[in-house]
Queue: 3 jobs
Job 1
Amino acid sequence: MSKKGRKIFRVLLIILFIGFLIPQNLKMPVEGAKQSDYNSKSFWFYPWGKSVAHKGVDIFARKGTAIYSSTTGIVLSSGEIKRGGNFVLILGPKWRLHYYAHLDKVKVTSLSFVNRNSKIGTVGTSGNAVGKAPHLHYSILTLVPYIWRIDDDKQGWKKMLYLNPIKYFED
Ligand SMILES: [Zn+2]
């Protein structure tokens, strides 16, 4: 590797390292939600339609309830997709993506900075939640795979990417 190449590599390693140092301090994203508003066993619930296993948690609340970012971060993307409906995708500490789906309204734009006091949207029934009880589908994905978490469950290999949000709520 050239001298310049080595320097760029070193800078990237430092940036990667700093990302891991930022504390996550995860906050329940749905305003006023309690343990009874979600099923503690909903992570990797199987069978789960087209998703096969449920790779997140569904937090039930009245339509229009505020959703706050669970961590500090940068909004990478927001808008509307088929299954997720109105969604927000935030890059947070430790190179983890936070995915919020089925929103009624999205209140942030891409590339904006958010913290745990930022209202990012409201609870709704968009995407494949149409006709169901209003809820937030919330997933956490790590960009750095945790391969030691792979197990024999259905699609268990994907457990290197999807982390269980409930674990952080209840810590
Ligand atoms: Zn869900």
Job 2
Amino acid sequence: MNMPRLGQGTWNMGDSAARREEELAALRAGIELGMTLIDTAEMYGDGRSESLVAEAIAGMRDRVFLVSKVLPSNASRKGVVRSCEASLKRLKTDRVDLYLLHWSGSHALEQTVRGFEDLLAAGKIRAWGVSNLDLAEMKQLAALPGGKACATNQLLYNLTRRGIEFDLLPWCQARKMPVMAYSPVEQGRILGHRTLKEVAQRLGATPAQVALAWVLRQDGVVAIPKAATVAHVRENHRALALQPDAQALKTLDAAFPPPNKARSLEML
Ligand SMILES: NC(=O)c1ccc[n+]([C@@H]2O[C@H](COP(=O)([O-])OP(=O)(O)OC[C@H]3O[C@@H](n4cnc5c(N)ncnc54)[C@H](OP(=O)(O)O)[C@@H]3O)[C@@H](O)[C@H]2O)c1
């Protein structure tokens, strides 16, 4: 599966009439720049984010790699299909490129996988994956019939959330399963960090660009920052051209230490 390395998140987008035009412009600018992976979910704004995405991609659906997610409470075999069909209506399209289980809940994973397989067979999704599943759950999934078809695990990953580097990320990398790093700038909270600012200044970049380039330094990691302004989208796009050098990585490791033991999976 060919996923663009840098995509666009949409959590909290589509909720405000006053911000709508700027949000649409931001998503479209990102697509023009090649950030054609758009991540949304039925949960976001109770479908309002998906409706915004529909408007943003109108007339250019074929250029976009569309990702949406089913809530765990809807993730029975039949529920997955119902949720996806409702998402497709809001997204005004006939298929999503990648459909994810948002996090694991009370429905057996096996039933959720069955639902995904029904959707694949109907041509309503091109691939399926998961989000927020820890290593034990990934192993359980891989052991299920059809479970190895899982195309991604979307996980919280940024400078301040490095837990997955200990075991889950290497496990996915060993299986050539891309990880989608969500909240790659920790929802903006890390951008004022003194060390990050210093590294950015030395590299002639911005803190957001360094934070994103740092996430993207890993093999098989895709980042999906959310940016609701054209200026932020343009700034983030330039992270693709930034290569943090050894000195930058060392400084960042000292300020944001990598994990030295297994940790329970963090999520937002
Ligand atoms: N699977 C899951 O459970 C899960 C959980 C969380 C998120 N996600 C997905 O991942 C996406 C990204 O995560 P996120 O939205 O939580 O956080 P994020 O992308 O780390 O941060 C978004 C925040 O950072 C700001 N920002 C972005 N680029 C910036 C820049 N260049 N300079 C300054 N500020 C900048 C944005 O401001 P503006 O909006 O003003 O541009 C926004 O407030 C979500 O939108 C969603 O699609 C998935």
Job 3
Amino acid sequence: MNEKKLNFGIIGAGRIGRVHAETLAFRLPQSRIMAVTDVNREAAQSLAAHCGIPKVAASAAEILADPAIEAVLICSSTDTHADLIVAASKAGKHIFCEKPIAFSLEQIDRALAAVKTAGVQLQIGFNRRFDANFVRVRQAVASGEIGKPSLMHIVSRDPAPPPLSYIRVSGGIFMDMTIHDFDMARFLIGDEVEEIYTAAGIMVDPEIGEAGDLDTAIILMRFRNGVIGTIDNSRKAIYGYDQRVEILGSEGKIEIGNCYPNQAVVSGGKSVYKDLPLNFFMQRYTESFAAELQSFTQAVLENRQTAVTGIDGRIPVVMAMAARMSYDEHRPVRLEEVGV
Ligand SMILES: NC(=O)c1ccc[n+]([C@@H]2O[C@H](COP(=O)([O-])OP(=O)(O)OC[C@H]3O[C@@H](n4cnc5c(N)ncnc54)[C@H](O)[C@@H]3O)[C@@H](O)[C@H]2O)c1
């Protein structure tokens, strides 16, 4: 067994920074957090106190200059990712970066080129690939258990929209939310999407529309291998986080439903009911967040390719661009029009 620990620095101590810091600090004995930084120093201090992190660095540059730090977690807002990937690569640090890499392909390609030149490891935060349910679906497709797949349906609805301040800098629903479903589509089918058609609207909150975004969408995808898939997104499902998948194949189908906080079913004189599904991603995907960091740490320690590469980070951004273009132009868009 490999006894070595991987020394981490964390950049960004917001929502997801906290999730990852807790994994490293409390669940992953092969990791050690050396320092954390955030432009909001109080956020970094609070996270350091919570997770027993010995140092609050003044800046990302200070983290990158620390020779004891071998890997960084980039958990800051998306507009900072590309520059940080470039800087971390130049500093020779292995990189775990949250999705999306950036909002433009130019920025993404610049970042991926720096990673390649430096020869460091990069993993993108598509955590759902590590969820036990989705892993089982992938296994059923890859092993031929359900025969040749023909149809795929992904339902992915949030319990409530994020604040407008978040929406405004999020890159839009396709880049921020659907991006996970685009990654799932590629991962589950094991093939690339060629063409996308989007029907979308503003059905949840007119202010989301005023901010230039959409809150409700169906995205139709045609894969190279002929599979037809849909993604059904809403920023609001009153009953909680709705995360389901079904794939139909020539020998059967596989589906996963929502996850619940308990198994209880209450039967009364007029109805039979159970509690609402786990409310949001931090509850629903807790285990996958831990598993993705475990996988990254293991890959770096064993000098193996990471499970979610830079290209896996780039293609869903292309899909998000195609989805938006399809909506804007009311037509199917081939991914090659956007930049495969
Ligand atoms: N994988 C997932 O399921 C998932 C979930 C949530 C967020 N994310 C991604 O994680 C990233 C962060 O999202 P969040 O929800 O945690 O946002 P957040 O706003 O809660 O946290 C971001 C933090 O980064 C800090 N920051 C910004 N610029 C910085 C810089 N240059 N150096 C250091 N700190 C800086 C901010 O002060 C803030 O505390 C986004 O890219 C988002 O898309 C991924």
